Amino acid sequence: MDPFTPPADSSLWCKNFLLGAATASYQIEGAVNEDGRLPSIWDTFSAVPGKVLAGDTGAVACDHYHRWEADIEMLAGLGLEGYRLSIAWPRVMDAAGAPNRKGLDFYKRLLNRLKEKGITTFVTLYHWDLPQHLEDRGGWLNRETAYRFADYVDLMGRELAGTVDAWATLNEPWCSAYLGYGNGHHAPGLANQRFATQAMHHLLLAHGLAMPVLRANDPASQKGIVANIGRGTPNSDSAADRRAAHRFEVQHNAWILDPLLKGTYPQDLFELWPGTEPLVLDGDMRIIASPLDFLGINYYFRTNVASDGAQGFRDVPLEGVERTQMGWEVYPDGLRDLLIGFKDTYENLPPIYITENGMASDDEVIDGRVDDPQRISFLKRHLAAVDGAIKAGVDIRGYFLWSLMDNFEWAFGYERRFGVVHVDYSTQKRTVKRSAELVAKFLKERRERG
Ligand code: FCB
Question: Name one GO cellular component term (predicted).
């Protein structure tokens, strides 16, 4: 048995369990000034000195805009059954809201090719590259942006219907709202807690407005949203630390999942951040709680927390635990425990896809090969956690590796390598890592079993 292949009793052997890989437009495409693409908030943000490690930007990235055919060959060659990609809003619409044909054609060609290859397509409509002209009018702080998003989604639904198996409206609204408007680590780089909750409300409203539009324009597809989730564990058994861990999870998980699945914001959130209640208009929560066909879950690590002596929590990094190149703790149980917890908390929990999971390591090509043993073990253990959740009754239908290839890791630039395929940024050469070879080997075995 190799170090990846799941045990014989794993649900992963079921061929209905979709195994794929994920990417996002700004992280891989490059070609930021081509064919009428408009600037996005990430072009602006990454041009500001000090915002991104080493001054990196997505201007070239993996040059996927030009190399997409070879990249799809590579994906198909690995036997991956699903591909989660995102559409760059500033590529497909001009500032007046008219379609940009050249940008649209790029995604049509890409999606048609994926269909020809028999690959299941998951398309994210917003993976953080907001058109800069909308940010200039307030971005996600402006309610109007939610309506502009619905217009964009309307166009995408009409143009791309039939080539998309599953649509996700937003990727990780927590990151857009909190990192973008709350602490400023991501574009557009604003730092105000009150902004974060208001931006979140408009993001969720955008999602809710987009759902019926997608249902009307592309009835046969699945529609949902992708949320990142965080595990918070208490540093001690004290009531204060347990409460801190609870607050951590409210801030990371319930802030998004409660409005989507219960139609309310968790009140604990506003005890943590007093005075930050967003402006909610009549009917908004009903729009936001539009039924989902699936929920995408992105999971990476856990955070060990203690009480901050007041209403909040502080991180208490554990010593002697395994960490990745990001410094994130490897903690597969967090994924299983959160999924089981959601099943118990939300009676209408939709079917789940793990839309991202993976890790960064400082991978190097040596004699034409990339050995990434930590990733192999990481993936094996996280897939075992998924299997554990399935066996406990959670309806999980698939898993996407983050990421197909090394790419622009936001504020960390190109230093952090999350791919199962290595990218040499000076030559754009792709080298399949050992982890990808083993995933491919497993998928081949699974197909042969029929
Ligand atoms: C997630 C993002 C994704 C990638 C991974 C590492 O938060 O959705 O684009 O950067 O983290």
Answer: cytosol
Instruction: State if residue 410 touches ligand 1 by the CB under 6 angstroms criterion.
Output: yes
CA dihedral sign of residues 337, 343, 349, 351: positive
Helix ranges (H only) for 301-398 are 332-345, 373-391
Question: pLDDT-derived band of residue 104, with 50, 70 and 90 as boundaries?
Answer: very high
How many whole angstroms separate alpha carbon 120 and alpha carbon 228?
22
The verdict on the CB of residue 129 being under 6 Å from ligand 1 is no
What is the architecture of the domain spanning 11-449? Answer: Alpha-Beta Barrel (3.20)
Tens of pLDDT, residue by residue over 17-75, are 999 999 999 999 999 999 999 999 999 999 999 999 999 999 999 999 999 999 999 99
Active-site annotation holds for 356: yes
Residue with tokens 């709350």: 182
Which positions make up the binding site?
Answer: 27, 127, 171, 300, 402, 409-410
Rounded CA separation 124/107 (Å)? 12
Q: Do you know the residue count of the chain?
A: 450
pLDDT digit string, tens, across residues 288-323 = 999 999 999 999 999 999 999 999 999 999 999 999
Annotated catalytic, 29?
no
Annotated binding site for substrate: 27, 127, 171, 300, 402, 409-410
